[in-house]
């Protein structure tokens, strides 16, 4: 963890090269961010306007809940990759009749492809919890849709999957003990995973730390749920340490797949998000927490690294959702997951691309950054002071490389984090890197791009808190 100062003798070309290398390391294995475009509302903009909105935000991946012709036509030649869906109501027909899926694929896929970049079909959605009991139809329907794609020579370009909910797990804690509900394993889980393996596809998983936190706020740390700085949770089964609830949920599914001998199937998080409003009993539903969760998640994904159990596999995530949808039934939170209001104004500000991560915000749109705690947060004060801190999700290798640069050629003042010095404790890589990054940032007069380190750092608008260490605001 400790870094030692070096005599600065390198030329500016070496400075640029080192920054390039750090950036390359940080983003070489970055995952992708997409968005769920739901339409359970009567006040949304036209699909043409939605496509322009997606493009203006740098979003290149979208997931739909049907195959609406108007939407698919609007997405044509946009460069946006699309996941479409066969609704649960059609699974019985798709499972029973190959001619049904032949016609469905012809009318809903082939008609629009390749002008519309359809990359996958979600056959059903959270079928295991469908009150209409469609579980038995799932795998036969998936197979028939795939056979229909094969007839049109589209099977190598368009994958078939089906989003499952975390509730299909019998055990999810600790993550290493993850297992599927026994009544699902033989009838549907194993056949589905075998199909995904044989077709080179991936499992879609809908994961919502919000639900786990809201139901167990007395046991689960909010910082842990929001990707903020926290002590971490050690998995008693394998000793791995988790710093976010989403990582733990994902690894519980990986463990469950391994338990049935399908540990080599890949995964995409097909839905995850946090509501900006909720009913009084929906603990944690707020604009500030939604900004924190989604903003920190984007940084987590685009900075690279997989989960503790699968560190080499980048995360690919679809945020839920693009809009607040005013006709969704249920609790108030159900109508308040959107990143945007129907008038296309942001509910809160978060970065959505790597470019925005270099100086983006993750705050409520009212600008009240005081609502958003500094630790673990991307924020940029409109007035007053700012600091630079380490991104704990960047991974040890990337943080160490950036720390070594900051304390060496970057000429940061790292003497306070040497043994026995005022900021040596807490003796952690994140704490030491935060001090070094901030020193570099402040010495560089908080200039644009000086708190990047290839995604290993970000700006906060409140004083960082690491033990008794005081972070400087200038030199």
Task: Describe the 3D structure.
The protein is an alpha/beta fold and 475 residues long. The chain is 33% helix and 13% strand. α6 (138-151) runs parallel beside α7. Mean pLDDT is 88; it is low at 1-28 and 366-384.
For the largest beta-sheet, the strand count, sense and barrel status come to: 9 strands, parallel
> How would the global form be characterised?
globular
Order of strands, widest sheet? 5-4-3-2-1-13-12-9-6
Q: Figure out the total of helices.
A: 14
DSSP strand (E) fraction? 5-15%
Structural class: alpha/beta
Descriptors for this entry?
14 helices, disordered N terminus, nine-stranded parallel β-sheet, 475 residues, two-stranded antiparallel sheet, alpha/beta
Short description:
With 475 residues, the chain is of the alpha/beta class.
Outline the secondary-structure elements.
Blueprint: H1 12-27, E1 32-36, H2 47-56, E2 61-63, H3 69-74, E3 81-86, H4 91-96, H5 98-110, E4 117-123, H6 138-151, E5 159-161, E6 163-165, E7 169-171, E8 179-180, H7 182-198, E9 202-206, H8 209-215, H9 222-225, E10 233-234, E11 241-242, H10 245-259, E12 266-272, H11 287-302, E13 316-319, E14 348-349, H12 354-357, E15 363-364, E16 387-390, H13 396-407, H14 429-443, E17 457-460
Parallel strand pairs: 1-2, 1-13, 2-3, 3-4, 4-5, 6-9, 9-12, 12-13
Antiparallel strand pairs: 7-8, 10-11, 14-15, 16-17
């Amino acid at each position: 963890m400790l870094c030692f100062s070096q005599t600065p003798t390198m030329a500016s070309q070496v400075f640029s090269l080192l920054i390039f290398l750090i950036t390359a390391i940080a983003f070489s294995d970055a995952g992708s961010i997409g968005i769920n475009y739901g339409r359970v509302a009567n006040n949304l903009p036209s699909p043409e306007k939605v496509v322009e909105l997606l493009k203006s935000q740098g979003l290149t991946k979208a997931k739909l809940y049907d195959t609406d012709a108007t939407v698919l036509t609007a997405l044509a030649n946009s460069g946006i990759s699309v996941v479409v869906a066969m609704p649960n109501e059609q699974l019985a027909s798709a499972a029973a009749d190959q001619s049904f899926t032949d016609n469905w694929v012809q009318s809903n896929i082939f008609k629009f492809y390749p002008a519309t970049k359809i990359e996958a079909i979600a056959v059903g959605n959270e079928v295991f919890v469908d009150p209409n009991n469609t579980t038995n139809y799932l795998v036969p329907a998936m197979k028939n849709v795939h056979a229909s794609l094969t007839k049109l020579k589209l099977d190598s370009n368009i994958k078939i999957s089906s989003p499952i909910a975390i509730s299909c797990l019998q055990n999810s804690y600790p993550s290493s003990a993850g297992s599927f509900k026994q009544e699902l394993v033989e009838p549907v889980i194993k056949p589905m995973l075998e199909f995904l393996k044989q077709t080179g596809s991936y499992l879609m998983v809908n994961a919502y730390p919000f639900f786990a936190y809201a139901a167990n706020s007395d046991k689960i740390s909010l910082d842990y749920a929001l990707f903020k700085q926290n002590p971490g949770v050690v998995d008693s089964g394998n000793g791995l340490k988790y710093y976010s609830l989403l990582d733990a949920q994902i690894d519980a599914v990986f463990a469950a797949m391994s338990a049935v001998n399908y540990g080599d199937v890949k995964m995409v998080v097909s839905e995850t998000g946090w509501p900006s409003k909720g009913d009084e009993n929906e603990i944690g539903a707020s604009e500030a927490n939604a900004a924190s969760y989604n903003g920190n998640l984007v940084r987590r994904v685009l900075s690279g690294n997989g989960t503790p159990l699968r560190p080499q596999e980048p995360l690919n995530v679809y945020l839920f959702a693009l809009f607040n949808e005013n006709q969704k039934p249920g609790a108030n939170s159900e109508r308040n997951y959107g990143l945007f209001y129907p008038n296309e104004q942001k509910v809160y500000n978060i970065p959505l691309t790597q470019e925005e991560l270099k100086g983006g915000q993750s705050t409520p749109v009212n600008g009240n950054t005081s609502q958003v705690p500094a630790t673990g947060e991307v924020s940029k004060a409109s007035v007053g002071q700012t600091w630079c801190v380490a991104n704990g999700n960047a991974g040890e290798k990337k943080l160490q490389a950036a720390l070594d640069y900051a304390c060496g050629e970057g000429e940061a003042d790292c003497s306070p984090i040497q043994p026995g010095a005022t900021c040596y404790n807490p003796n952690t890589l994140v704490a030491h890197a935060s001090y070094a990054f901030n020193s570099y940032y402040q010495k560089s007069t908080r200039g644009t791009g000086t708190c990047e380190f290839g995604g290993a750092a970000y700006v906060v608008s409140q004083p960082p808190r690491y033990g008794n260490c005081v972070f400087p605001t200038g030199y």
